[in-house]
């Protein structure tokens, strides 16, 4: 399949490379020449104009920083430029309203489109083990799945347009809450004189079991290997977690949803990022304790 890939950052670069490994012909675009050079090394054909990259393709995948850019790229360089039979997939994490708007515009122009944000981080993007949460019609999901499968371990149809973004922001709000709770409990146990490794061994096999503890332990030298063992470098940056939490708070307000723990988590990450920690992995929030 001939696929255009727009947005070759930390996530997009690895995703595009896995499409090439999956046997697809990838036409890649990014504003960064360094990103384009890396894409060429991974077997992509590169372009300096997004509208040129989407010509003649069967699918367009985007991985972009925010909703405003997504809307601008689709309106200016994809809709009406890519063939009408192409399926469009936005894998960015953006607000639900913009996702629905862009999909509606694409469908009005005759395209099938989905919102398909991801979970898994840079390592999963490079390894082809992302989880995709997909919003869109049954037909669009069926077509999009064939594009997403080489990049992920799971492709899940969340529901109608915008449902992928809803799943993503709710999932990451839960992740932020559990990471903060895990950090609090680990530091409290340590201050009460319990060996952190012993606490991990007990809680990870009892009712305290959770992903932040068992699969992403936030304390260096305890539990499983994680960014904590690399001075909180790599992984999922605090700035990105904060972006998702801000989106979650906007969505909660729009839906009149009560999210007291989510709100507190957002405030804590606002403070942590504001203190100059935006580039650290989000598990570094344990340093505040």
Q: What is the CATH superfamily label of the largest domain? A: NAD(P)-binding Rossmann-like Domain
Uncertain residue segments: none
Spatial separation of the terminal alpha carbons: 50 Å
Got a strand count? 9
Gyration radius (Cα, Å) is 20 Å
* Percent range for β-strand residues: 5-15%
Overall spatial form? globular
* Largest sheet, spatial ordering of strands: 3-2-1-4-5-6
Structurally, the number of domains stands at 2
Note the topology.
Blueprint: E1 2-6, H1 12-21, E2 25-29, H2 33-41, E3 45-47, H3 50-53, E4 59-62, H4 67-78, E5 87-90, H5 96-108, E6 112-115, E7 118-119, H6 121-127, E8 130-135, H7 138-148, E9 152-159, H8 163-191, H9 196-203, H10 211-214, H11 238-255, H12 260-277
Parallel strand pairs: 1-2, 1-4, 2-3, 4-5, 5-6, 8-9
Antiparallel strand pairs: 7-8
Helix pairs in contact: 1-6, 4-5, 8-11, 8-12, 11-12
């Amino acid at each position: 399949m001939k696929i255009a890939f727009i947005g070759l950052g930390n996530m997009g670069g690895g995703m595009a490379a896995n499409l090439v490994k999956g046997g697809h012909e990838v036409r890649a675009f990014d504003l960064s020449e360094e990103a384009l050079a890396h894409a060429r090394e991974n077997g992509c054909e590169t372009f300096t104009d997004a509208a040129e990259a989407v010509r003649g393709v069967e699918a367009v995948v985007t991985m972009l920083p925010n909703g405003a850019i997504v809307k601008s790229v689709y309106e200016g360089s994809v809709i009406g430029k890519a063939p009408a039979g192409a399926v469009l997939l936005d894998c960015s994490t953006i607000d639900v309203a913009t996702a629905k708007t862009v999909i509606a515009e694409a469908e009005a122009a005759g395209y099938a489109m989905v919102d398909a944000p991801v979970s898994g981080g840079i390592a999963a993007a490079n390894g082809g083990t992302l989880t995709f949460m997909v919003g869109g019609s049954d037909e669009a999901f069926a077509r999009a799945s064939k594009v997403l499968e080489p990049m992920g371990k799971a492709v899940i149809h969340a529901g109608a347009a915008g449902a992928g973004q809803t799943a993503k922001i709710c999932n990451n709000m839960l992740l932020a809450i559990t990471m903060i709770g895990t950090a609090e409990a680990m530091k409290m146990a340590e201050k009460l004189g319990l060996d952190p490794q012993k606490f991990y061994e007990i809680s990870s096999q009892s009712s305290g079991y959770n992903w932040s503890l068992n699969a992403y332990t936030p304390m260096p030298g305890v539990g499983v290997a994680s960014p904590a063992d690399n001075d909180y470098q790599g992984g999922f940056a605090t700035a990105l977690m904060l972006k998702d939490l801000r989106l979650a708070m906007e969505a909660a307000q729009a839906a009149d949803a009560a999210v007291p723990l989510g709100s507190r988590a957002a405030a804590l990450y606002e403070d942590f990022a504001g203190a100059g920690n935006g580039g650290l992995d989000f598990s570094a929030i344990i340093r505040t304790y």
